[in-house]
Amino acid sequence: MASRKPVRWHIAVFLAPAVLVYTALMIVPLFGTLNLSLFNEAGDVRVFVGLANFATLFGDPRWSEQFWNALGNNAWFFLIHMLVQNPVGIALAAILSTPRLRMAAFYRTAIFIPTILSFVIVGFVWKLILSPIWGIAPGMLDFIGLESLFAPWLGREEYALTTLALISVWQFIGIPMMLIYAALLSIPDEVLEAAEMDGITGWSQFWKIKLPLILPAIGIISILTFVGNFNAFDLIYVAQGALAGPDFSTDILGTFLYRTFFGFQLQLGDPYMGSAIAGAMFGIILLGVCVYLFGIQTRLRRYQF
Amino acid sequence: MTKTFRFALLASTLLGGVASAQDVTLTIESWRNDDLTIWQDTIIPAFEAQNPGIKVVFAPTAPAEYNAALNSKLDAGSAGDLITCRPFDASLALYEAGQLADLSGLAAMANFSPVAKSAWQTDDGAATFCVPMASVIHGFIYNKDAFDALGIAVPTTNEEFYAALDKIKADGTYIPMAMGTNDQWEAATMGYNNIGPNFWKGEEGRLALIKGEQKLTDPQWVAPFTELAKWKDYLGDGFEAQTYPDSQNLFTLGRAAIYPAGSWEISGFNTQATFKMGAFPPPVAAAGDTCYISDHTDIAIGMNAKSPNAEQAKVFLEWVGSPEFATLYANALPGFFSLNSTPVEMADPLAQEFVSWRGKCQSTIRSTYQILSRGTPNLENETWNASANVIKGTETPEDAAKRLQEGLASWYDPQK
C-alpha cells in the first residue's frame, strides 16, 4: 500500500505572492476590459450587447477606417523596427564582441543609455533637434552641404511615422544589442576554434557559426519588438499628441485606444468602444505571439554545448 | 492632498481671528489654481468686507483632475458650496444629475446677455445654472514696431489683411504670421473659429447650424477654410512641425509680425515681448460690414444643489454677477473678460483693445462647442484636423467641409 504523498504546501506558499499580484494587476483587469467590451450604455444603464461593439469597430466605416489606419501604421512602425533596429543591433553586438575593439565598454554604455531615458525626454529632445525653427538638424545638414534635404519631418504626413519609428529605434537599439551581445559571448571558444581550424574566419565565421547559434535570441528579440510596438503609445503621444497628427498619419492602436477610452478635448470618453479596441489589440498581439511560438520557435534548432 | 490643502486654508482663515460663531463658510471648487492668490488677496476680501458673517474659501484642484475630482466629491456629498463651471456639456451633465442648482431666478442674471449665458443653460434655454464669469476673445495680435517700420496700417478688410501680409513677406525681416499646424488646435481655434464668424454671421449661422437650417458645406461655412488655405504662404518655414509654444516664442521674440490669438495670451505676451503690441479683430469682407467676433464663454460659477448654505451662496453669486466683481476680476486677469453687460474699465491697453470690439462687433462663441460636439465623430476634434489639413494644403476647403458635414450628419438628427 503506497503511502500518500504529503501535500506540498510550500509550492503554493512560494507561488502565492506572484500569483496574487499578477492576478490583481494583470489578469483581473484584462478580463474586466474584455468583459466591458461586451457592454454599452443605453440611456443611463449598462446593457449587454454581445459583440455589437466589435461589429461597430469593424463594420462602421468611421470606426473601421480609423482602426485599419492605426493597424497599418502600427505594422509599418513594427516593420521599421525589424528592418533597422534588429539588424543594426546585431551588427553592433557583433562589432562589440570583436576582441580587438578598444573602448568597447564605453560604446556599449553610450549606445544603451537612451534605453533608460524617459519617453517624455526622448520625445521632447528629438522634437527640438528636428524643429525647423530652433533645431540643430537644419544647421548640421547645412554644415555638410545638404540643407536642401531638410524638411519638417514630424509635420509631414509622408515622413512623420517613419521619423518617429527611427527615433524609437534610436532609443531602444540597446536592447537587441545587449541580448545578442550576451548570446555571442555565450558561444564557447572551442566551437570558434574548431571553426578556425577548418578555415572559417571573419565574416564567414559570423554567418556560418555565430548567426545560427544566436537565432533563438533573435527570435526572442523579434517577439519582444512585436509586443512592444503593438502596445506602443507614449512616444507618439508625447511627440504628436492624442490626435496623432499630421492628419492621423502617426496614429497607432495605442493612441486610437487612448482617444476613444479616455476622450480628448470635447470628446467624452467611451469606455465600451475603448475596451473593444483594447480587446482587438489583445487579439492581434495574442495571434502574433502564437504564430511565433507555434510556427517559428518550435522549428528553431537549439544547440547544446 | 487637496484635503490637507483645504484644511490649511480653513485653518488660516480661523487664525485670522475675526471669525465669530455665526459665520458661515462657503467653499469654492475651482480648477484655476493659478488664480489662488488673486482670489485670496483681492476678490474674497472685497466680498467679505461687504458681507460680514460670510467667509469664503477658494479651494482649487489641478485643472486636469478637476472634472473627475469634482464629480466624485459631488457624489460623495463632500463638494464645496460653490462650483466653478466648465462651459457646455460638462456642467450641463451636473445640472441634469441634480448636482447644480437652477439659478435662473438670481437678480444678477439680468446683467448677462443670452450669448453669455448660453454655455450654462439647458439646450432650450429654460434654466441657467451658473453665473457667467469670463470669456476669451479671438483676434490678431500684431507687432506694432514692425507695422510702423514697414508703414503698414492696421488692416480692417480682408483685402488690406492680405496686402499687409504680402508687404511683410516681401520685406523679409519678419515672418508674416506665427502659426504652426503641429498641435492642430490653433488652426481650428485661432484660425477657423477666429475668422469664421464674419462669414457665417456669428450667432445667426451658429444657431442655424444647430437647428439644421445650414450645413457645413454651405458657402459661408466653407469660406473660412478657403481663407485658411491662403495662410499657408505667410507662415514660417517648416510650419508643419511648428508647435504652439514655438509660435508664441516666434512672436514674442519679434521674429513674426502677426499672431492669430486668443486674449488669454495677453498677460504672457506682456511679460515676454519687448516691443509694442496692438490687436485687431478678424478682418471683414468690405469696409463698413458688420463685424463678428468669437467671444468665447469659458468660466462661470454655480451652486451645489445640496449645499446647506444655499442662502449665503446666493448672496455670493449675486455679487459675482455684479459690475463690481467684473471690474475686480477683469483687471486681476487681463485677457479673461467679464461677461457682464456693464462695461468694465481695464488698465491693460491690449486688453482694452480686445474688449472694445464688443462695442462695434457682434459676439458669438466657437461654433463647435454647443451641442455639436456631443457625438462620434466629435466635430471639434474633426475641425482641428480639417483646419490643419486645409492650411497645409493636403485637403481642399470643399473636401474638408464635406467631411465635417458627413461626420456631423452621421449622428446629429437635425443635420441628417
Q: How are the elements arranged and paired?
A:
The complex is a heterodimer of chains A (305) and B (416).
Chain A: H1 9-36, E1 39-42, E2 45-48, H2 52-59, H3 61-96, H4 104-112, H5 119-130, H6 137-143, H7 157-172, H8 174-185, H9 189-197, H10 202-230, H11 234-240, H12 253-262, E3 263-264, E4 267-268, H13 271-296
Antiparallel strand pairs in A: 1-2, 3-4
Chain B: H1 2-15, E1 24-30, H2 36-50, E2 54-60, H3 63-76, E3 82-85, H4 89-96, H5 114-117, E4 130-143, H6 144-150, H7 158-171, E5 175-177, H8 185-195, H9 197-200, H10 203-211, H11 219-231, H12 244-252, E6 256-262, H13 266-272, E7 277-280, E8 291-303, H14 310-320, H15 323-332, E9 337-338, H16 349-360, E10 361-364, H17 379-392, H18 397-409
Parallel strand pairs in B: 1-2, 1-3, 5-6, 8-10
Antiparallel strand pairs in B: 3-8, 4-6, 4-7, 4-8, 4-9
Question: What can you tell me about this protein's structure?
Answer:
The complex is a heterodimer of chains A (305) and B (416). Chain A has 305 residues and is mostly helical. Chain A has two domains: 10-50, no CATH class; 68-299, MetI-like fold, CATH 1.10.3720. Helix content of chain A is 69%, strand content 4%. Chain A has 13 helices and four strands. In chain A, strands 1-2 form a two-stranded antiparallel sheet. A two-stranded antiparallel sheet of chain A has the order 3-4. The model of chain A has no long low-confidence stretch (mean pLDDT 90). Chain B folds into two domains: 2-133 and 297-347, D-Maltodextrin-Binding Protein, domain 2 (3-Layer(aba) Sandwich); 137-294 and 366-415, D-Maltodextrin-Binding Protein, domain 2. The model of chain B is unreliable at 8-21 (pLDDT under 50). Chain B is an alpha/beta fold and 416 residues long. Classes of the chains: A mainly alpha (305), B alpha/beta (416). At the A-B interface, β4 of A face α17 of B.
